[in-house]
Each structure stands twice: as C-alpha cells, then as structure tokens.
Amino acid sequence: MGLTKDQLRQRTKLLRLGARRGRLCSACVAFGTVLALVLGSLRLAYAPPYDPALDARCVKGLRSAQSEWFETRACAYDAREARADFVAAELALTVRAKHTPGPCAVLTLGLPTPSPGRFIGQGLLVDETATGGSSFPTGDEALARKMGFWMRSMLDAGAFTCETHTYTDERAVRVLESSLRKQGYFDAVVGKLWNDRKQAKQLDEEFEKIVKSSPNAKLTVLINDAKRSQSQFARFKKGLASGKVSTLIWRREITSTAQRKALMKEVKFVARFGYSVYLAGASQNAKGGAEPTAYLRIDHGAWDDKFATPNSGIELTIVAVPRDNKFKRLLDQSFSLCPVRSSVLNFNERADALCACETERFSTELAEPTCSLESRLALARSKRRGFWSFFMGKTTEPEDTEGFDELNAALDDVGGEDYEANK
C-alpha cells in the first residue's frame, strides 16, 4: 500500500529538515575546527617559547645538582668577592658585540660594595693602575673604595665601549665625572641617584630618555647597590616590555625571610616579561682575575631556598636574559651544570641522556671547606653583634614593606601565566 500525498509531503519535509540540520552541524564542526586552529596559533604566537633548559623531565635533576653545587661553593656567588655582576656584564657585552653589533648603552644604579681593600693616607685608593691612574681622595674611605671598585670593574667589563649612564650617591657625582673626563670618556653621563619615593624620577623615565637619544641601542642594566628598593622593578615595566633591555643584572643581599620573598617576587616579575633568570657565579683564575663559573637557573621551579639563606653575608648576583638572546644560549650550553644539547627538542631521546649534569666541567674549582655555605653562615654569625637578630632571621634595618607592596601590585598588573603554577 503506497503513501498518501500528505505522508509524502511530511516525509519530504522531514528529509529537508534533516539535511539542514546536517549542514548546520557540519558548519558548526568546521567553525569549531577553524576557531581551535586560530586560538592554537595565537597561543603559540604569544606564549613564551619552549625552554629546553627547564624541560619538565630535567628540572628536578637540575635543582638537585645546583643546590649541592651552591652549598659547597657559596663564596663563588658573593658579588663582593667575585665581582660576578661585572663579569656577567662583560660576557653579555662580548656576546652582543659579536652577534648583534650596533648601538649599545649601559645603565648603572648605585655603587657596588667590594670586599675590604687596602688604603693609604687619607682615603687614596691603592689600586690606581687598574683605574687608569685615577685615585679618589675623599673623607669617606668606604665611598672612595666603592668608586674605585666601580671604575675598575666597568673598565674590565668593557662597559665604556657603549654609551654609559650612571646614577650614584650625590657625593660621588663630581668625582666620577672628573675621573671619566680625564680618561677620555666625555660622553659618559653621571647623575644623582634618585630617592625611590621622595622624588618622581624613576628607572623607566631614564630608560625613555636613553631610547629617545639612541632609539636603536640595546641596554645592559646593572643595579649595583644591593640595598636598592625592589620598587625599582615595579617601575621598570616599560623597559622590560620594550625588548630593548638585552641584559638585566642586579645585586641583592638577604638579611631576612621577607627580603628572600621580595627577591622571589622580583624573579617572578622579570620572568613574566620573557626573561630567563640565573644566579651568576665567578671565581678567581690563576692570574688573579675574575672569570665566570657555573650559572644556576632560578626561575620557573629551579629555585632552592639555600640560594638566599638569610644573614649568610652573601651579596647575590641575579642575571636576567631574554629567552631568544644569544647570551642565554651561551649560558645554557657553556655555563650550566646541566648543559642544553642541540638534540634537546627530540622528544624520542632518553630523558637521562637529555638531562645529564656535567659538574666535572668545572672541576678546576675546588670546593674548599671555607667556601661552603655552612662555613659562610658561621662566619657571618660571628660577625653579627646581636645573636637574637640572626637567630630570628631579622635585621636591625626596617623592612621595605612599601616597595614590597608596590611590587605585588605590579605583578598583578602584568597578568599572564601564573608563575607558581610552573613550580
């Protein structure tokens, strides 16, 4: 028995409706596929590049090797003894000159604190040959020592081959200007270091002045004063986001757990702008000069609290390098305890072959008992006047809570992937 006309019309209607639904579903599937591809492309475009040095399979071994290395060779990471910050600057400037020659600028904040040196007379620096024959007479021997140490270190690093901008103690401005002029560095700028909060002058403002005068220059920034406020980083967002800061180097002294937390927030803040962060080390060579030793990775899960033990008497040197920088490649391949190999992107390779740590590459540096973290802690403890100050992990100086809050606020403004999720 055949279908009636009404039944045929109904069936035709249902078939057409089904065809429309099928086309609609196909369109939805096609749209979803295209959307997923677009979103995936955007994620790849804006996500930080894969960092083989922090491969998830390797970071545990890296942390263990770095912790043990630091524990037995802590003195190599004291910037006052090893000049690790200026050694890092020399490395960075050498790599830049070789691979990306062009205009460059070196911006320094504050004067570094050296290990105790020898003086004669009324504050005359003994080591005049290393500073081009310059001496720094002053009633403040500590300031004279800092100026001499800064000058010698900048010369050794080759910093004056670039445009230099130095901001320092008001008492040192004229002396440094005069000394630089005597040595022929007439374009070197020396200015008064601003107060973080009493004046509006900020690091980003100085950065913008340099960019305006030298728009193609790559910057190497050194914060030499270990006591500078962490708010400096909160006020350097434009500079870090510009892609013009090729290396950021800063000193940090840890005298309390709050300062250690502040350091970790600084590392977190800088890493969010696409920088890889290292703890720089240096040691003395056979000729008495300073040379780099193993660099320890400290961002995205590679950190160990031993690196910033309160009241250890160590001024740490932190180095931040963009992830696509040739200097980073040098550090990962030549100065890492666990060097990155060229085949690291081959995920079929065995993890143990990929993550092998080679501490014997630095075997010429003997781990002397006096260089251990335990020994440094004992030395620092004996030098401190207040036992309870050390025991409680506190310092007699007030905590910079205002700068700490400012850095927290700056971290919230940056956004992006949560750093703690990577730990």
Adjacency order of strands in the biggest sheet: 5-4-1-6-7-12-8-11
Question: Regions with pLDDT < 50 over 5+ consecutive residues?
Answer: 43-47, 117-133, 385-397, 416-423
How many E strands? 12
What is the beta-strand fraction? 5-15%
Radius of gyration equals 28 Å
Helix content: 40-55%
Structural class: alpha/beta
Shape: elongated
Tally of contiguous helical segments: 15
User: Terminal Cα separation, in Å?
Assistant: 74 Å
Report the average pLDDT across residues: 79
What is the N-to-C order of secondary-structure elements (H for helix, E for strand)? HHHHEEEHEHEHEHHEHEEEEEHHHHH
Largest sheet: 8 strands, mixed
What would you note in describing this structure?
This protein has a domain at about 75-110 and about 195-415. The chain is about 45% helix and about 15% strand. The protein has helices at about 5-45, 60-70, 80, 85-100, 140-155, 170-180, 205-215, 230-235, 235-240, 255-270, 325-335, 350-355, 375-385, 385-390, 400-415, and strands at about 105-110, 120, 125, 165-170, 190, 220-225, 245-255, 275-280, 280-285, 290, 295, 315-320. The strands form three sheets. Strands 5-4-1-6-7-12-8-11 form an eight-stranded mixed β-sheet, with helices on both faces. A two-stranded antiparallel ribbon has the order 2-3. Strand 4 (about 165-170), helix 6 (about 170-180) and strand 5 form a beta-alpha-beta unit. Helix 4 (about 85-100) runs parallel beside helix 5 (about 140-155) and helix 10 packs parallel to helix 15.
